[in-house]
From TrEMBL:
This is NMDE4 protein. The gene is Grin2d. One of its GO terms (cellular component) is membrane. Keywords: Membrane, Transmembrane, Transmembrane helix. It is found in: Membrane. Gene3D superfamilies: 3.40.50.2300. Pfam families: ANF_receptor. It comes from the Eukaryota. Residues 5-123 form the Receptor ligand binding region domain.
């Protein structure tokens, strides 16, 4: 960094990310999706915002609901794997912390939910700060 220079980092808000993701879903006619969150702060607002965007739209969204994952009470990951397996939508919007994303993608990978036919969108500003993707994406 040069003397006297300023570093400015801009990031998009979670709301902006969700708008863009829904535009991508609309463009590809992927109207059926589920929202997965953890108990990370803001998860209720994300769920409400997705609901507001899809209900107020003329697009025939098939919003398959919101699933809130609680990783803290599941040390062996058995409940997480069961919950992930029970989600019928192949398109998933995931709002969680970076550490939680690692565990979720590891479980999804073990279940075969990260291969062809499954599309995951990571949402949130809490995933920033690293250029490294979760191992099992």
């Amino acid at each position: 960094q040069e003397k006297g220079s300023t570093f400015l980092q801009l990031g998009s808000s979670t709301e902006q990310q969700l708008r863009v993701i829904l535009e991508v879903l609309e463009e590809y006619d992927w109207t059926s999706f589920a929202v997965l969150t953890t108990l990370v702060p803001g998860h209720e607002a994300v769920a409400a915002y997705v609901e507001a965007l899809t209900e107020g739209s003329f697009i025939g969204w098939e919003h398959r609901g919101v699933l809130t994952l609680n990783l803290s009470d599941d040390p062996d990951g058995s409940r997480l794997r069961r919950q992930l397996r029970d989600v019928s939508a192949h398109i998933r919007l995931l709002y969680c912390s970076r550490d939680e994303a690692e565990a979720i993608f590891r479980a999804a990978h073990d279940l075969g939910l990260t291969g062809p036919g499954y599309i995951w969108f990571l949402v949130g500003t809490n995933l920033a700060g690293s250029s490294r993707l979760p191992e099992h994406v």
